[in-house]
Design a protein that fits this description.
Elements: E1 2-6, H1 18-32, E2 36-42, H2 47-50, E3 54-64, E4 67-76, E5 85-89, H3 105-121, E6 129-133, H4 139-146, E7 158-162, E8 191-192, E9 195-196, H5 198-205, E10 208-211, H6 214-220, H7 228-233, E11 238-240, H8 267-282, E12 290-297, H9 306-317, E13 322-329, H10 331-343, E14 348-352, H11 356-365, E15 368-371, H12 381-387, E16 391-395, H13 398-403, E17 415-417, H14 422-435, H15 439-450, H16 456-470
Parallel strand pairs: 1-2, 1-6, 2-5, 6-7, 7-10, 10-11, 12-13, 12-15, 13-14, 15-16, 16-17
Antiparallel strand pairs: 3-4, 4-5, 8-9
Helix pairs in contact: 1-16, 4-5, 8-11, 9-14
The protein binds adenosine-5'-diphosphate and alpha-D-glucopyranose.
C-alpha cells in the first residue's frame, strides 16, 4: 500500500509544533508495519534542506490566478528519515526560511497544493491513499474531487487529519481564480460563512477525516471556531485517533540532547542530574520542585493565564517551588512572562524563543510539565513528559483528558484540573508540589508513567485499518 502524507511541517526538516512531530514520525512506524508511507512538504530554506542531497524528480509549471509558476519536486536521496521525503520547490514562494507568517501565505499554500497535484497527475501507478494534514492541504481533497483538471485523481481515497481546527486558512472569494476549472455549482463546497475555507472544504470533500484524539472529535461539535455545524453534519466519516510519539527521538536512555541519560531503574538519579544542569543554567534552586511550561505562547495553550497563575502559586507556596517557561508566541504574553523575572528573581525564569535541545533537557530535568490549555487537540508535551518520568499537570480537555489520569484515581499518574483560570492553575501547582513531600509516592508515579506505551505502535495500526477500509 502506498500512502502519501502531505503537510506543511515534518520534523526534523521543519517544525513549529506537534504537527511536525507527528508527520515526521508516523510514516516511519507505518513503514515498519509494511505500508510504503512517504512525505511531501514545501522546500523551505532550512538547515536540514541545505545539508541534504536532493535530486530533482519532476519539473513543471503551474498556473495560479494568471501567473505561471515554475516548480520542482526534489527527493531526499538517502531516505535518511526512514521513509521517502519529497520537497516542493517554488522559487520566491516556498524557498524561504519561515514556515508561516508571510503576507502571501494563501498564495504559498495554494501553489504548494497545486504543484503536488500536477505531479500526482503524472504518476503511472496511482498511490492508494493521499493523507492530508491541516488546512494547508485541505484544498487537495476538494480539487481531486471537483476540479476538471484533476479528474484522473477522483478515485484515489483521501484522508484529512485535523491537528488544529482553530486555524482554517480562510481567504476571500476575490482569490477564487487561483483554483483551476471548478464548476460554479460546486462553489458551495469551498464556502463557509462567505469566505473560502480550506479546512471546511477539506472536511466536506475528503473520504474520511480524523482528529488527533477522540475527545477533541467530540469537542469540535460544540467548539471549533465556527465549524461546529459542519462537524455535526459530517460526523459519519470521522474518527478520533490519538497521536503516538517517536520513541527513538524521545528516549531518556539514549537522548543525545540531555547531559545525563537514564532509564526506569535509575530515574530518580537521572532526573536529579538533569535538573542540576537546568537549575545551574537558569539560576534556580535544585532543592525545590521544578514546574515547567513548554509551548506556543498563545491563548489556546492558556499561556496568557500564566503570569497571574505563577504569581499566585508563589504567593501560596511561599517560595517552595521553582517555575521555568520555554516558549514563544504573542508579543504581549512573551513580554509579561519575561518581565516576571524581575518580581521572582530566585524562583522563576523564562527562555523566550524556540530551542529544541532545551526542551529535551526540561522534559528530563523538570519534576512537572504544566499544560493549562484551553484547547488541546492531542498534546505531545504530556506524552514526552510521561516517557521521561515527569509528572504532567494538565487541564482536562481534548487529548489531555484522553491521556492523563489524575493521581488520585486508580492507576493514575498525573495532576488534572477543570477550569481554565489562573486560580485553578495555581491550585493544581500547589497540589502537585505537595506530592513531592512523599518520595516513595513520586517514585511509584514515575515508574507507572515510564511503563506506559504511547508509541506509534498503538496508533499507527488504526490509520492503516482506516486506509484499508477505503480501498475495498
Ligand atoms: P502544538 O502543536 O499545539 O504546539 P503539541 O503539544 O502537539 O502542541 O507539540 C508541541 C511540540 O513543540 C512539542 O514537541 C514541544 O516540545 C515543542 N515546542 C513548543 N514550543 C517550543 C519551544 N519554544 N522550544 C522548543 N520546543 C517547543
Ligand atoms: C496541533 C495541536 C496539538 C497536537 C498537534 C499534533 O498542533 O495543537 O494538540 O498534539 O497538533 O497532532
Amino acid at each position: 500500500m502506498v500512502v502519501i502524507h502531505v503537510s506543511a511541517e515534518c520534523y526534523p526538516v521543519a517544525k513549529v509544533g506537534g504537527l511536525g512531530d507527528v508527520v515526521g514520525s508516523l510514516p516511519k512506524y507505518q513503514q515498519a508495519a509494511g505500508v510504503n508511507a512517504m512525505v511531501v512538504m514545501p522546500y523551505y530554506d532550512r538547515q536540514f534542506v541545505r545539508e541534504s542531497t536532493l535530486e530533482v524528480v519532476f519539473s513543471s509549471e503551474l498556473q495560479m490566478g494568471g501567473r505561471s509558476l515554475p516548480f520542482q519536486i526534489l527527493k531526499e536521496s538517502t531516505d535518511k528519515l526512514g521513509y521517502p521525503l519529497h520537497l516542493v520547490r517554488i522559487p520566491g514562494l516556498l524557498d524561504r526560511p519561515d514556515i508561516y507568517s508571510y503576507q502571501d501565505e494563501t498564495e504559498q499554500f495554494v501553489a504548494f497544493q497545486l504543484a503536488f497535484l500536477e505531479w500526482l497527475l503524472q504518476f503511472g501507478t496511482k498511490p492508494d491513499v493521499i493523507h492530508c494534514h491541516d488546512h494547508q492541504t485541505g484544498l487537495i481533497p476538494f480539487l481531486m474531487n471537483h476540479s476538471h483538471r484533476y479528474n484522473a485523481l477522483t478515485s484515489i481515497p483521501t484522508v484529512l487529519t485535523i491537528h488544529n481546527a482553530q486555524y482554517q486558512g480562510w481567504f476571500g472569494w476575490d482569490k477564487y481564480h487561483y483554483l483551476p476549472d471548478v464548476d460554479p455549482w460546486k462553489w458551495g463546497m469551498l464556502d463557509w460563512h462567505g469566505t473560502i475555507n480550506p479546512l471546511a472544504a477539506g472536511v466536506k470533500s475528503c473520504w474520511r477525516y480524523t482528529t488527533v484524539s477522540p475527545s477533541y472529535l467530540e469537542e469540535l461539535k460544540s467548539s471549533s471556531n465556527g465549524l461546529e455545524h459542519l462537524f455535526e453534519l459530517e460526523e459519519g466519516k470521522s474518527q478520533g485517533i490519538i497521536n503516538g510519539i517517536d520513541t527513538e527521538v524521545w528516549d531518556p536512555a539514549t537522548d543525545t540532547m540531555i547531559p545525563c541519560n537514564y532509564h526506569i531503574d535509575n530515574v530518580s538519579k537521572g532526573k536529579q542530574d538533569n535538573k542540576r544542569a537546568i537549575c545551574k543554567q537558569f539560576g534556580l534552586s535544585i532543592s525545590k520542585p521544578l514546574v515547567a511550561f513548554i509551548g506556543r505562547l498563545v491563548g489556546e495553550k492558556g499561556a496568557d493565564l500564566l503570569p497571574e497563575a505563577v504569581a499566585s502559586a508563589f504567593n501560596n507556596l511561599k517560595g517552595k517551588v521553582s517555575i521555568l517557561v520555554l516558549g514563544s508566541g504573542e508579543h504581549a504574553i512573551e513580554e509579561s512572562l519575561a518581565n516576571l523575572r524581575n518580581s521572582f528573581k530566585k524562583d522563576y525564569n523564562a527562555f523566550i524563543g524556540y530551542d529544541e535541545a532545551l526542551s529535551h533537557l526540561i522534559y528530563a530535568g523538570a519534576d512537572f510539565i504544566l499544560m493549562p490549555s484551553r484547547v488541546e487537540p492531542c498534546g505531545l508535551n504530556q506524552l514526552y513528559a510521561l516517557r521521561y518520568g515527569t509528572i504532567p499537570i494538565v487541564r482536562k480537555t481534548g487529548g489531555l483528558k484522553d491521556t492523563v489520569i489524575d493521581f488520585s484515581e486508580p492507576d493514575g499518574y498525573g495532576v488534572s484540573f477543570e477550569e481554565a483560570s489562573s486560580e485553578a492553575i495555581s491550585e493544581a501547582i500547589v497540589r502537585a508540589t505537595e506530592l513531592c513531600a512523599n518520595t516513595p509516592g513520586i517514585r511509584l508515579l514515575r515508574k507507572r508513567m515510564m511503563n506506559l506505551d504511547f508509541s506509534w505502535h498503538r496508533s499507527a495500526g488504526q490509520y492503516i485499518d482506516l486506509y484499508k477500509s477505503l480501498n475495498i
